[in-house]
Design brief:
alpha/beta; putative 2-phosphosulfolactate phosphatase; 5-stranded parallel sheet; 4-stranded mixed sheet; 9 helices; 11 strands; about 35% helix
C-alpha cells in the first residue's frame, strides 16, 4: 500500500526520503495560499526563490515580484504575501517571482522529489483527487516558521492524511499526530488555532481577513506543480 508521511519543518527534511515520492508543500499562512489563489486568478507562472537577491534579479528581468520577510512586504517589490493581492487583473498571464520567509524555501528544498505540489486548504480536494490516481508515496512538507513547527501547516497535513487514509498507510507517527490534531480542531479551525504563534503574528499586523480566508476548504480546483524552476498550473 502507498504511504503518506509528514515532515513538520524543512529543518527535518534530511531525515526523510523524497526520491520516488510526491512532496506536497504547505505554507498555509500565507505563501501556498497565495500561490493557489494566484493560479485561480490566471497567473501564468510563479518562480519560487529562497533569497531576496534572487527575487530582485528576476524582477529586473521583467517578472512581477513578491517578497516577504517576517510576514511583511519587503520594500521595493510589487507584491506582498496576502492572497487578496493576487485577486487582481495585473496577475492574469503574468510571470511572478516570489520569495517568502518559509514557503518558497521549502519548495526549493524539495526539488529532488518525483513531483512538488503546492497545497493549501483552498485546493485540498483537488490535491486529494490527484493523489488518489498516483502510484507514488506522498510526503507533506510543512513550511513551519524559521525551522520550527507550526500549527496551521500541521493541521493541513492532518486534513490531507484524513482524506487519504483509505488509500495511503500512515508511514510514521508524524502522520498520525497531524491527523489527530486535525480531527480535534476541524469543526472550528479558527477557534482551535486562537493562540497559535502565527495567528498572533498576523493579528498584530491587522490582517485577520487573511487568516479566515486561508482556512477555507476546497475553494479552487487548481494544483500548482513545479516544472523546472517555476510553478505552473496542472490540469485536474
Amino acid at each position: 500500500m502507498k504511504q503518506i508521511d509528514v515532515c513538520f519543518t524543512p529543518d527535518l527534511l534530511h531525515l526523510h526520503t523524497v526520491e520516488n515520492t510526491i512532496v506536497v508543500v504547505a505554507d498555509v499562512f500565507r505563501a501556498t495560499s497565495c500561490m493557489v489563489t494566484a493560479f485561480a486568478y490566471g497567473v501564468n507562472s510563479i518562480t519560487p526563490v529562497a533569497t531576496i537577491d534572487e527575487c530582485r534579479l528576476l524582477q529586473e528581468r521583467g517578472y512581477l515580484a513578491a517578497a516577504e520577510r517576517n510576514a511583511r512586504k519587503v520594500e521595493g517589490f510589487e507584491l506582498d504575501n496576502s492572497p487578496f493581492t493576487y485577486m487582481d487583473d495585473r496577475i492574469r498571464g503574468a510571470n511572478v517571482a516570489m520569495t517568502t520567509t518559509n514557503g518558497t524555501l521549502a519548495i526549493t528544498k524539495s526539488r529532488s522529489a518525483v513531483k512538488v505540489l503546492v497545497g493549501s486548504f483552498l485546493n485540498l480536494d483537488a490535491i486529494v483527487r490527484f493523489l488518489k490516481t498516483e502510484r507514488y508515496d506522498v510526503m507533506v512538507l510543512c513550511a513551519g516558521w524559521k525551522g520550527r513547527v507550526n500549527l496551521e501547516d500541521t493541521l493541513f497535513a492532518g486534513a490531507l492524511v484524513e482524506r487519504l487514509k483509505d488509500s495511503y498507510a500512515m508511514a510514521e507517527d508524524s502522520a498520525i499526530m497531524a491527523w489527530r490534531l486535525y480531527a480535534q480542531g476541524k469543526d472550528n479551525l479558527i477557534s482551535y488555532m486562537a493562540n497559535a504563534s502565527h495567528i498572533r503574528r498576523l493579528q498584530r499586523l491587522g490582517i485577520q481577513k487573511d487568516i479566515a480566508y486561508c482556512l477555507q476548504h476546497d475553494l479552487y480546483d487548481v494544483i500548482p506543480v513545479l516544472r523546472g524552476n517555476a510553478l505552473v498550473s496542472m490540469e485536474v
